[in-house]
Amino acid sequence: MANVIQDLANNSIAVDTTGQFIGYSESEETSETLSLKMYNFLLYPIRQSDSTMEGKYFVKRLFQGPQNVWQTIHDKIFSIKDLWSVTRCSDEALKYLKNIVGWTRELDYITDELDYDTLRRLIASSVPLWSKRGKEETIIDIISLMLNTRCVIWNWFDYRWIVDETEFAEQHAGYDSWIIDHGEEGLGEYSSNIRIVDDGTLNKDLVKNVLKLIRACGERIEISYINFLDRFLVDDDTSQWDNVEGTIMSVSDSIAELDVSGEYQLSVANVESAYEWSRYVAYFRIQGEGDTGFGAVFYYQDSDNYYGLELLISPYESYKLFKVVSGEYEAVKIGKLNYDLSENTWYGIRIHIDIDDNGLDIIKIYLDTELIVDSSDVSDSIALAGTLGNGYILRTNDYGLNWEVIANTDESRITCINSFNNGTALVGTYGDGKILRSINNGEAWIEMEDTTQTSINGIASFNNGIAIATSNNGKIFRSVDYGINWLEVEDTVESWMNCVATFSNGVAIVGSGSNGKIFRSTDYGENWSETEDTTEEEIRCIATFSNGVALAGTSSGGKIFRSTDYGENWSEVKDTTETMIAVLLTIDNGVALFGTSAHGKIFRTVDYGLNWSEVEDTVASIIRSMAHFGNGVIAAGGGSGKIFRSGDYGLTWVEIEDIDESQIYSMDNIKYSTLSDLNKGTIGVFANDGSTLKLSESELFQLPASTEILDVNS
Amino acid sequence: MAILSIYGLSETVATATGELVTLVKITSAEVISSNKLRVHFDRNMKNDDNLANRLFYTIIPITSGAVNCYVSEVKIPYVAYPEYVDLITSEMTDSASYTVYVDTDGPTDLENTPVDPDNNDQTFVAEGITPTIDKIIAVSENQVDVVFSENMKINSAIMNISKYSFDNGLSVLSVISAIGDTVSLATSEQTPGIIYTLTVNP
After folding, report:
1. Is B5 touching A (CB cutoff 8 A)?
2. Which residue of B has its CA nearest to A1?
3. What is the pLDDT of residue A172?
């Protein structure tokens, strides 16, 4: 056996063992292409001269220094790729490589003791640990089988993606990992987070032990115990949802869908004690189709009592925070984002309901991590005023103490301003008869309607989104969507229609500007009829109390007429002998005020308009506009661009502003409805008639969050 | 336990309390691979240090020319009371006979019964791995390195140029060196890009 080719175990190679190769050819090393000689960049005559006895290669030797520096840099750059190789990585760089396989700086006390070869072997042997470590799907399955509950895992890589540390600029597509406050800043980013539904019977020790078995040593896991989770992993499983009033929810391919055209669709979470949930954070990953709106509800008690956030595929509005209380719908805040929402795009809605140190409700709603609704922003300190002359819009943010011009409409006159109870403001203009709309406290205005009339003289609104506008030629216009779309609903054949006011029961009244007639509607402005002829020259202004009392002021005589039956019958209660009652303001404690022309006087009543007394002579030519901030603070605008202010329900007045305009012609404060009607209830999703909704994930946990840290050590 | 006396059959012994017990037998030696041998016992064994101690297992070649073999590790299956152990060994010579011995002072069964000195061995035929050519590298126009699949024995055969031949007119001029798994051959001038086939015979 000695004369055969064999291995160390005396096993011979087979007869006619063959192998192939390609004949040798010169190849240029890639590193050579970059290993340029700086010297060779010099012109040939210079190098030739340098090579003579006279030059003695002085220049070449001079270049040797920078050439060496360049070579070192070049070698370093090309060695970067070796950082990822456990065999080629330099000894000095091993301390970085070890982090990748879990030997992070917290464990330096172990790895610092090792020589480079041992550390290299440790890194190599740690790789299989990670490649064989339990996957998220496995853990979810195991927990589901052993504990009969639901869970979701956000791992280290999910967090990297959420905090935008990836390089691909992906859309977050509705995922919002920050639903749970991790307490210690940044903790969530560096651990994985397991959210597991605990109905009160969960064996938490078993959860922790299962995780310890499956996860790698040294790994930190944050366990959050939540109250509700549905990721729609099982087709047709809607067991956690109740469909309201004919709603059909379907589930397939991990997506739940509400889609039955022609009906309002609403599904709510039905798990145990859901209707008792109070302080919580709820998350929905949704998308929709159609322009009528879709979204999420919270504090749901029954189909007549709940709150919700509606998303809108609209160039005018992005969302509405609304409430349905005793069956009455009201948009509490309407907003527009910097971008238009799109159909069939995932969005994440996070609804955060808590209570502050003073016991007041805090409602914060986030869309894709952007805070869009904050109940603390709902303020009654803002008012808007419009001018005669340049069509400016002024704003105060401090109950009328300071005013500034915030918009120039390029119209000749802002004839009227009206605000819904959700921050949405409408103004009417003189000249082109336009209606403008703002949903950001008056900063930006969009023309919603050009009535082609000469002037829009009055606008009033109901809390359900219906608004009524009056114009010259006796026409009445109506909107049912918070002022976006308008239709002419009545032509009274009057030559001029002045003012309009509403009661909350659907009654609206308007006063004619061409004679003393009053028209009335009892169906939110849809149908109209003449209810009174005062025989005066003009009904200049009109206002209402919530108890059914209405007041109307006239020009050419300055008389006040009063009704106690929601505007059906009227009688004269005051004759001022002034030229005109230019503005009327009613406050719900029985106080009302009116301003006059041509002396700029202010009269006041404290008994719903029965008896009046003059309280101020502003010496302005006219008091044309007034607004009440809700706490007895009143602003009044008049001739020569003057603004006056009272802090005692109109008893005493102080001039606080004088701008360079001929008149402060119109004024109203920005109003918001309250959100104190409901304080507990379940969550759900809805799609309005004409829209569809898809939901891929929904979860909820009650505050304070129940979380604990698990360090896997053994 | 002390063996006091032997009654008839050698595998039966009496304990200090007079109880008769049957000694452990090695029932077979199963070749798993060129360096892995499975030794079967006739019963469940105590999973202790003795069972895992490689020094209690010896492999002796029987066939002439077979390479010596040593046990580097004893692998015990993941059960409470194993019936066999796997011996990790150095590579053995293909088709050669070997005998494996288990020391009678080594592994015991669950009752601390030792291995029967008359049944503590098994003979088996080994499987070796035939070395192959892993790759051939043309390192210059006049030299190729032949890399085998494992370290080779450096003897006169591997240094003999008659064992190597090329096609396409390329000839072997000399064997420059043989180190580890690599043999360097000096060749006549290679034509760049031409595929050559090297044939090696034992």
Report:
1. no
2. B65
3. 60
Give the model's pLDDT for residue B10. Answer: 47
Give yes or no for A28 touching B (CB within 8 A): no
Q: What pLDDT is stored for residue A362 in this prediction?
A: 86
Query: From the candidates B35, B149, B153, which should be mutated to test the interface with A, based on the most A CB atoms within 10 A?
Result: B153
The more confident residue out of A13 and A222 is A13
Which pLDDT value is given to residue A28? Answer: 53
pLDDT for residue B116: 93
Q: Cβ contacts (< 8 Å) between A27 and chain B: which residues? A: none
Burial class (CB in 10 A: 0-12, 13-18, 19+), A82: middle
Percent of chain A with pLDDT over 70: 92
Instruction: Look at B133 and A2 and tell me if their CB atoms are within 8 Å.
Output: no
Asked if pLDDT for residue A205 goes beyond 60, the answer is yes
Judge: A11–B130 Cβ closer than 8 Å, yes or no: yes
Determine what percent of chain B is predicted with pLDDT higher than 70.
Answer: 91
B196 and chain A: CB distance < 8 Å anywhere? yes
**pTM (2 d.p.):** 0.61
- Strand B182-187: give its sheet, edge to edge: B133-140, B143-148, B182-187, B172-179
Domain end position, chosen among B60, B91, B125: B125
Please tell me whether residues B49 and B79 are part of one structural domain. Answer: yes
Name the pLDDT band for A157 (thresholds 50, 70, 90). Answer: low
Chain A hits for B128, CB-CB cut-off 8 Å, are: 7, 9-11
The torsion angle over the Cα atoms of residues A649, A387, A437 and A514, rounded to 10 degrees, is: 90
Backbone angles phi, psi at A492, to 5 degrees: -80, -5
Task: Parse chain A into domains and list their residue ranges.
Answer: 30-130, 135-231+706-711, 241-344+353-359+371-377+676-702, 383-669
Check B133 against A17: CB less than 8 A apart: yes
CATH of domain A241-344+353-359+371-377+676-702: 2.60.120.560
| pLDDT level of residue A559 (50, 70, 90 thresholds) | very high
A272-294 core/surface letters (b: 16 or more CB in 10 A; e: else): eebbebeebbbbbbbbbebebbb
The verdict on a CB contact (< 8 Å) between B132 and A24 is no
Would you state the pLDDT for residue B7?
38
End-of-domain residue from the set B98, B125, B152: B125
Q: How far is C-alpha A396 from the geometric centre of its chain's CA atoms?
A: 24
Compute the mean pLDDT over every residue in chain A, rounded to the nearest whole number. 86
- State whether residue B190 sits within 8 Å of chain A by CB: yes
- How close does chain A come to B56, measured CA to CA in Å? 23
| Per-window interface: B 64-103 vs A, CB < 8 A | 65-67, 90-94, 96
Give the CA distances from residue B160 to residues A454, B130, B198, in Å, rounded to whole numbers and listed in that order: 114, 19, 14
B167 and B75 housed in the same domain: no
pLDDT value at A548 more than 70: yes
Topology of domain A383-669 in CATH is: Neuraminidase (2.120.10)
Q: Identify which of A588, A581, A572 has the alpha carbon closest to the alpha carbon of residue A541.
A: A581
Are B49 and B99 in the same domain? yes
Phi, psi values for residue A649, rounded to 5°? 55, 35
User: A19 to chain B: which residues are within 8 Å by CB?
Assistant: 133-136, 146, 197-198, 200
User: Does residue A2 belong to the interface with chain B, where contact is any CB pair within 8 Å?
Assistant: yes
**What span, in angstroms and rounded, lies between the C-alpha atoms of B35 and B89?**
5
Residues 152-181 in B contacting A (C-alpha not used; CB under 8 Å): 152-153, 155-158, 160, 163
Domain that holds residue B193: 133-200
Question: How does residue A220 score in pLDDT terms, banded at 50, 70 and 90?
Answer: confident
Structure confidence at residue A296 (pLDDT) = 96
Residue A345, C-beta contacts closer than 8 angstroms, at least 6 positions apart? A171, A173, A287
- Quick one: pLDDT at residue A166? 44
Please judge whether A21 and B140 are an interchain contact, meaning their C-beta atoms are less than 8 angstroms apart: no
Which residues from B are below 8 Å from A28, CB to CB?
none
Check whether A243 has a pLDDT greater than 50: yes
